[in-house]
Amino acid sequence: MTIHYNEMLMMLWNLPQTVAVFAEFDKWDENETNLIKKAKENNLKVILIQKEISNFKNIIPNKGIEQKAKDLDCELVLWHSFNQEYNYERIKQDLNIQKVYLFDNNSDLAKIETAFEDKTIIKYDEKLNNDIKKSEEFLKLGKIQEYKNLNGFNFGFKGFVEHGNHIGRTINYPTANIIINDELILKEAVYLTTTKLPNDEKAYPSISAYWTNKNGVNVFESHILDFDQDIYGWGIDVEIIDFIRESIKVNNLDELKDLLNQDKAYAIKHFKGE
């Protein structure tokens, strides 16, 4: 289970006594695993607290963090803050935190030391982060299968659908556009993807292009197959399944449509299991 925490909600959480691990789990490597194992020696419920700032920057997506937390029998807390001011005294009280574990390079080390009397601070070992470096490199090269083989899950992210230039709609390829602002750690290319909508567990097959448009805007555009709904403003969940091809500059809309037809045919074949 994942807890979405915000001190502004004034909720009563009713958690048993907990031990909290504060770390950058979006860059989870051997260091984080070892820190959690130390925390579990207390024989209390262990919660992993991840600041939810911009999931575009994650190397390990939230779904991957959830999977890793579950594998270690821990609960994930995504800490949302509207003003980026994190109240450690408040989260200590709300989540019944008795002790904390963290690394010596934590950006909020001083605040955490002040808020918690019982704390264990471990030196972050740069020699133990080879897997996260590999994961980042795979994403930058568009090596999606290599990323999945290393981590055991697909890369993905969430974003809100915004209006674009509506060019795709003119050739029967409407897209759900997410403005990235150069934050996504991923090669600009065309990908096989799935897209999930709010309150809908179905993973809709889609083809997606990550590129910089003519206005210099970094955008991730997804065409959901056999789908015709207005989802502007909706939050969607994109999962990268595989690399299809490099980005190709086209001279006109006919060339673009030909390319998209090929991408769609590839996607249909894949999702049919052929």
TrEMBL record:
Database matches in Pfam families: Flavokinase
SMART domains: Flavokinase (SM00904)
Listed InterPro entries: Riboflavin_kinase, Riboflavin_kinase_bac/euk, Riboflavin_kinase_dom_sf
Catalytic activity: riboflavin + ATP = FMN + ADP + H(+)
Keywords: ATP-binding, Flavoprotein, FMN, Kinase, Nucleotide-binding, Transferase
Stretches assigned to the Riboflavin kinase domain: 150-272
Name of the protein: riboflavin kinase
